[in-house]
# Entry
Amino acid sequence: MTAGAARYGGVAIALHWTTAALVVGGFALGLYMTGLDFSPARLEYFAWHKWIGITVFVVAAARLAWRAAVPPPPLPDGVPPWQRHAATAVHRLLYALLLAIPVSGWLYSSATGVSVVYLGAVPLPNLIGKDREVARWLLLLHQSLNFTLAVAVTVHVAAALRHRLVARDGVLERMLPWRR
Amino acid sequence: MRILHPFVPSLAVLLLAATGAAAQGVLVERSEIRFVSKQLGATVEGRFRKWKASVDFRPQDLARSRADFEIDLASIDLASEESEAEVRRPVWFDTARFPQATFRSSALKDLGADRYEIAGRLTLKGATRDIVIPVQLRRDAAGLSVAEGQFTLRRLDFGVGSGPWSDPAVVADDVLVRVRMVLPRAG
# Structure
């Protein structure tokens, strides 16, 4: 790796990997739970899925605030301009999705007439009234945004691995929770 | 007026005919029978799309007044088509065996200030319980009489949601039923 590549701070790293775990968990749970027959367990999974989503939203908002206060370390000099632009575009898309997907899920739940109680303790208001047709569209939106996220995350991970394995420029190491 | 369920579809009509009371309909398009259930603490809203009401409301003659309802349980409007299919199954409403819920009023009481109490029998999924529904009467902008009432139904009293669904921590025992009936002008 390139010597002296500045690392992200501890808070940024912790929030990044928290997001990664929540997104992978929430996405997998979403795929799994919707294929199940009705059962009390299925209801629990839906509740957890919603809690994960709300948490993702809050963490994403916190990360944006943190970035504004503590800007990310600059990329190493050797990273070509097209990669810098691509990185910025993908990061913006990721943040947009991390905020939009939970909201689309909350809207969908509201449109089905089912409220969200965060962590089983904090009742959130329904954002819109119950409406079957609106719910159908919101579900499609929620799914489409999630598959967009899956693609964006794949690009994000592939780029990080390329920095590590091909370019060997220390970009991935900036975000690893341990120092090398 | 108000309220809920169970069967014996034509009995109410026969009774009305027998007593000589003129069964009065309600303005179905403006009226509704809704409910709010709780799943793991979250509210779940629903309503019934199809129901019939026979209302004969005489403020000056409550003894001859009545409010009878017949609800098509399979017409339930829930979160999704799959959840609607679920609650038609035997563990919930068992609509194949018990297609309707009926409510038959037995007594109306004037509480003053346009508030009334309707006592009656609710039959749902083969079980019958006495219930009392408090009702508030008011006039809407068009000058029509609107009766609004709500009561709490305990689903487990009627065996709605059995087996794995009988745990009230998952699906609450209490279901809040809200009825809004708009009476025709003649009423």
Notes: Chain A is about 65% helix and 5% strand. The longest helix of chain A spans residues 132-167.
